[in-house]
Structures are given as structure tokens and as C-alpha cells.
Predict the 3D structure of the following.
Amino acid sequence: MALSKDVRPHPLRARRARPPASGEVKPPSPASREVKPPSPASGEVKNWGFSTRALHIGQGPDPATGAVVQPIHMATTFAQQGVGKHKGFEYGRSGNPTRQALEECLAALEDAKHCLAFSSGLGAETTLMLLLDPGDHVVYMEDVYGGTFRLFDKVLKRYGVTFTPVDAADIDAVERSMTPRTRMLWLESPTNPLLRIVDIDAVSEVAHSHGAMVCVDNTFATPYLQQPLHLGADVVVHSSTKYIGGHSDVVGGAVMTSDEELEQKLRFHQNAVGAVPSPFDCWLLLRGVKTLALRVERQSQNAMELATALQGNRAVKRVFYPGLDSHPNRGVAARQMRMFGGMVTFEVEDEPTAFRTLERLQIFALAESLGAVESLAEHPARMTHASIPVAERERSGVGDGLIRLSVGVEDVADLIADLESALS
Ligand code: P1T
């Protein structure tokens, strides 16, 4: 399935009412190399497909040696020819060639002008949220990763930012929750862990009409399946620990945007806050992202088959998967996503049944995280979403019988057999 043709830039993107606030902004000068591989902005690459960009943007053969793989630059500091005269890099926190290669590549994958890499998904989120001022208001999709909720509720509230959860699948509810102080609408789609789908285009229009910017955490969808900047969003965040890395061996985060002013503020904060990734982690992410499309296609196919099998299992009360006809927003998912993704959530009778099922699995590892080649299973209520108070969790539908699967690239027949035997 190709990305649908009606995915288009939001008309209000060009005339956003208010940029996010920040203090004095003086970003470090943009890094430049003497010999640059193709950059996403250059005309020569604009027709390249997703996988060609994943393999070649930011990563031409090394001009010094011809090495076809991006070198890992471990230097923490870079010699200057005179004070302030340098080749684009000064100090490892403010810029690094391997990180720059990753940022160029990831920007190209989201079709963004800019990407900033961070040491974790939450590092990326924190840095972005630090652009807000005390008194600012954020409306967020009520079903979000537990760590995102914790950042909002336990950290940022202390700095005077206020938050309102909303079912963003309900456009009228988004409209009602906007206030004159609302600066940001924060979305996940598909959501973690209930795989709810938000019509990003429609809710972006609502947010923009109130002067709020739209941020989409695109971790579950990946840039291969969904490009929120083409659906009206202003900024995208990723936990690149997940599908972008894809091999459960690196923690990372990223923010992408095409808004120049926002990029400058983010670049300043990336350096000022310092939640930057190591050069080795950047290299691992560059290596991982080369197979993103291949992995996600296989994971989506496996997930579809697995969700269908679970639907027919008597021990399963409900299956949550955007590709199933039973999903309330399947139509929106089909319009804004290329395939339906590798995450499947289902509900069994109660917590003891869920625990027993998880402990019996042989191929699925019982573990937090997602998006890697190997399949994982977890219990959101006690694991990834345990930091959300019970009442809040139950209100958004994350019950004790819920199991979340991150479907890997194994043979799907083996995955289905593993689950069926654990459920029997
Ligand atoms: O773990 P970190 O790289 O900091 O990313 C945080 C994060 C942000 N956004 C979403 C949608 C996420 O799922 C996560 C991390 N999630 C898990 C570890 C998990 O198992 O759901």
C-alpha cells in the first residue's frame, strides 16, 4: 500500500500564529564539512525513495578514506585554525560529525528540513518541552507512553506548565480542551499501548486555529509508515531506541521539524541542556535505520496475521490493532499510514491470566521496549505504564488484563504457535 495521495501539508503550517516561547536564543553556527554527502535539501536527492535515503543521505563514502560506512568520530574537541575559525565542529556536545550524519539521514526520512538527535526519547521530549514557559498549557492524547506522562505530570508541572489529557480521536474534545494559553497539542498515533488512531490532519487544523503547535510522537508508526509533517504537524519526536535502531542495542531520541525558528531554538537547547547521544550510539542508529523499511514491512505483515489469529482465540477478550476491521479508526489509519505497524495489544480475563500467559511465552521475551527484530511482550499496567495513577490508567482504558506485543521479524507461524500455547 502506498502512502495515500491525500496526505498533504496542512494549509495553516505556513502561517502559524505563535512560535513556541523560549529565552535568549543563540544557536551554535550550523556545522558544515568540506565535502558533504547529499543533503536532504538538495535537488539531486528529492526523488529518492525512502530506503535509498535511509542508506545514502548523510553518509556518502568518507572523503578522507573512501570508507563506505560513516566513521565514528570519538573526538570530544576539534582543533581550531584561529579563534572561532574551524571546520564546523568545536566541542562534542555542540556538534559531532557522526551525529550530524545521523541527523541529516533522519531528517530526510521524516521529509523534514532538520533533525536533532538526543540521548533518549525522553531526552528529546524534555528538550522540546523546555521551549515552553511557565503558564503555558499543553493538551495531550490521554493514551501516551507512561514515561511521557511521568515527564509531564511529575517534572514539567513543577515548572508551571499545565497539562490536559484528551481523547484526541474525538475532534470536538480537542476543540473543547483548547484555552488561550494552549501552546501545544501532543499526540501519539498509534498510541502506546492501546493503538488508538488520531486523525492528525483534522486535529492539527483545530490546534492551529487556536495558535497551538502540534507535536507527534511518531515512535510507533516510524517515518516509513507515517510522516506527520505532511499531515499538518509542526514537530515530530522519536524514541529511536525502538524501530529506528531496531536491534535492542541503543537508546536514543530525535526531534524533526521544517520550521527554521523552531530548529534554531531546539539547536540552542540541545547544546544548552546537553542530552546528546554518543558518537557510537549515532553510528549504531545509522546502521539500524538502513533496514528500517524492510523490518517494518515484515513486522507489519506479521502483526496483521497475529492480530487476526488472536481475534479467533477463545482466551482473548479483545484485540487492539489498527489494521483490523473491528478497530474504530481503521479508515483514518489506512489513510495516514502506509501499513498498520508491528504493535498488537490484546486483553485477557484478568491480571493473573495475563501474568501466566506472559510467563509461558517461549519466543516472545517478557520485556519493556519495542520495535526491534526480536518479538517482545509486556504488561503495560505493571511495566511501561506503572507510573500512571490507577484511576488515570483505567480511565484511558489500560486495564490489568492487557498484554502488549512488539512483533518482530521471526516466522509468523512460530509466533502464533507461541502465543496460542501460552494462552491455552
Ligand atoms: O526510552 P526512551 O528512548 O527514552 O523513549 C521514551 C518513549 C517515548 N515515546 C514512546 C512512544 C515510547 O514508547 C517511549 C519508550 N517506550 C518504552 C520503553 C515502552 O516499552 O513502551
